[in-house]
From TrEMBL:
GO terms for molecular function: metal ion binding. It comes from the Archaea. Keywords: Metal-binding. PANTHER family: CUPIN TYPE-2 DOMAIN-CONTAINING PROTEIN (PTHR35848:SF6), OXALATE-BINDING PROTEIN (PTHR35848). It comes from Acidianus manzaensis. This is Cupin.
Length: 128
């Protein structure tokens, strides 16, 4: 396929399939099925929603486009808001915790041989 054109509103919104996630939804915009060697996903997280601490082998870049959240990466905590972005390498534990408004972000990932996600017992604690 030489190109692919669509609209975000036309892409199915699914619950984030990470155990312990709450109020978090994902849309797969660009995937290997469209001929890409990477994936572009849009996440929408409701107020007080969470994507719990987890780890995976693929790398990701997250770009916040609406709202603000707490991001735990390794053993550090950061506050991110609209316009901020973060690169998270493979095998680095991380979590996203939304505050009291809708959060939206894009997440670009590479395709690793193992795309599984492991949920961790670690909690994202403390203040940024």
């Amino acid at each position: 396929m030489d190109f692919y054109l669509s609209n975000i509103q036309e892409v199915e919104k699914q619950e984030v399939p990470i155990k312990g996630s709450k109020g978090a939804f994902i849309q797969w915009l660009i995937t290997k099925d469209k001929g890409a060697s990477y994936a572009v996903r849009k996440f929408s997280v409701l107020p007080n929603g969470i994507i719990p601490m987890h780890i995976h082998k693929y790398q990701e870049t997250v770009v916040i486009t609406k709202g603000k959240c707490k991001v735990c990466v390794s053993d550090k905590i950061y506050e991110m808001q609209e316009g901020d972005y973060i690169f998270i390498d493979g095998n680095v534990k991380h979590a996203f915790i939304n505050y009291n408004e809708n959060l939206e972000f894009f997440c670009i990932i590479n395709y690793a041989e193992d795309m599984s996600i492991q949920v961790l017992d670690d909690e994202c604690k403390g203040n940024p």
